[in-house]
Amino acid sequence: MKHLFIVCLFILLPKIFNGQTYAYKPIGFDTSCYWVEHWHMYDGGDPMDCAGERLISIEKDTIINGVKYWKAINYPTTKWSGFGTLCNSFYITSYQFIREDTIDRKIFKYNSNGETVILDFNIQVNDTFNINYYSNNPLVDSITIDVLLNGDSTTIQHGHFGISNHYKTIEGVGANFNFIWSGYGEWGTPLYTLKCFNKNGQTLYIDSSMSYDCIKKPLYDPTSIANISSKDLDIRFNNHQLSFNNTLGNIGTYCLIDMQGNCIIKKQFSESFVATQLPALPIGIYLFKINVGNLLYVEKLKIE
Q1: Is residue 15 scored above 80 in pLDDT?
Q2: What DSSP assignment string belongs to the chain?
Q3: I want to staple 138 with a disulfide (CB 3.0 to 4.6 A). Which of 75, 145, 161, 198 is the partner?
Q4: From 1.10.3720.10, 3.30.450.40, 2.60.120.200, 2.60.40.3080, which CATH number describes the 225-303 domain?
């Protein structure tokens, strides 16, 4: 009987924090799950400082080596803003295969080297988070019980890294930094910061520091006319004259493209207001493309 008591106590201890007991709150991956992320790439040496919004969602389930995984897709939903030679990597769409073990309370991702644990909800105070933060992974400094937006209880593990990054793993949600995909800039700047999480059409988590409606936006394609607005440059076309405001104040180029993809007019500009008179052109649809710094704008023009 004495040995039985010790075993039972060992089982119960991981479920008790500050006198409260809790049951594990799984995410329960399915195709209704999506996470809206703030993407920020910063490096003072390169230099680059650019940001945008990305969406991670579950696309479908699949079987790998007899084990069920979920295919997660990660894509941009806005254009990026800022500066830097490597910032266009923001437009890359990528995939990961993930699964949740509700018994071991862990989330895994799969790659060519096998499985890797990306979240472990079993670790306790003074254990180490495995967040691939160089060689200085933070410790769990506290564990709290909180409530999701739907009223369900959840357990949160807290830690700190970098200059002022408060890292949280949140049962039923994931983590507030670098969940599924990860990366760091200078001074430990996380590449991904969670803005919100939605499942079954219900928002379960929103970062209180951000004002945001948790909407599942479509893929932003930087070459698509439908997704690129010219309002920032106030592009105007009247009587065969093209004009726009260079509000960014940088040197740029513009190009008029016919429907065969040929750039028939190309010029560089640096002035704050740009105007050009077009020559007589065949009737049809044209694309007017402007590059200012690392930003791309496209306008569809109809010449009659």
Answers
A1: no
A2: -HHHHHHHHHHHGGGEETTEE---------TT-EEEEEEEEEETTTTEEEEEEEEEEEEEEEEETTEEEEEEEEEESS--EEE-TTGGGGG--EEEEEEEETTTTEEEEEETTEEEEEEETT--TTPBP----TT-PPBP-EEEEEE-TTS-EEEEEEEEETTTEEEEEETTTEESBSSSS--B-GGG-BSEEEEEEEETTEEEEE-TTS------PPPP-TT-GGG---TTTT-EEETTEEEEE-TT---EEEEEE-TTS-EEEEEEE-SSEEEEE-----SEEEEEEEEETTEEEEEEEEE-
A3: 161
A4: 2.60.40.3080
